Hints:
Blueprint: H1 2-14, E1 25-26, H2 32-45, E2 51-54, H3 68-77, E3 81-84, H4 99-120, H5 123-126, E4 132-134, H6 141-155, H7 167-173, E5 176-179, H8 187-195, E6 199-200, H9 212-216, H10 218-223, H11 230-245
Amino acid sequence: xxxxxxxxxxxxxxxxxxxxxxxxxxxxxxxxxxxxxxxxxxxxxxxxxxxxxxxxxxxxxxxxxxxxxxxxxxxxxxxxxxxxxxxxxxxxxxxxxxxxxxxxxxxxxxxxxxxxxxxxxxxxxxxxxxxxxxxxxxxxxxxxxxxxxxxxxxxxxxxxxxxxxxxxxxxxxxxxxxxxxxxxxxxxxxxxxxxxxxxxxxxxxxxxxxxxxxxxxxxxxxxxxxxxxxxxxxxxxxxxxxxxxxxxxxx
Length: 251
């Protein structure tokens, strides 16, 4: 199914708009070896610029060594991987009785589960050059989890034996990226943690909002924010995404 989707994405969109659209390969993590092969096929044959992996329904956290064949392939191909939500299965959200409650929690909970594993299981030590992004959960959880990870690591460093520094060190020094919401009030604080070059804007177009006008209002409103520098705004809207996906825009 992943292969069919990637072929569809290329044939219906990317091949027709090669100077405007870049594709990211859907990867089947229920078979890590097949996911690595599909990433290589999509990068080499379909000119895609990275891979996307789910944040739910997995057998192990994304820091586990079982994912190393995929991470090795991404590093060798010099492409990033993006973690995104999906099914809410296994997240304990079945006690909710409405979709809006699930929507509030599913991305954030899933991202934090795998962010914790990615760091404490030492994936940034094993693959210091791997670009990894945690997408569509905002950035409000990032400083909280950085502090909490550091606190628990200080008490139990033997349970994260690959780490020679506190977890927040790897967040700052390794190519770990996050998407934000443009209206998040916590953005200036997150920037102050040394993450100015690690935050990207996702439009999520055309998902969830009914009209184009609602999307088009986002960037002008963001431009009016007085608590962020023009350089920071430019990085969030454009430069960090270009760097993460190694894009070559025409201008």
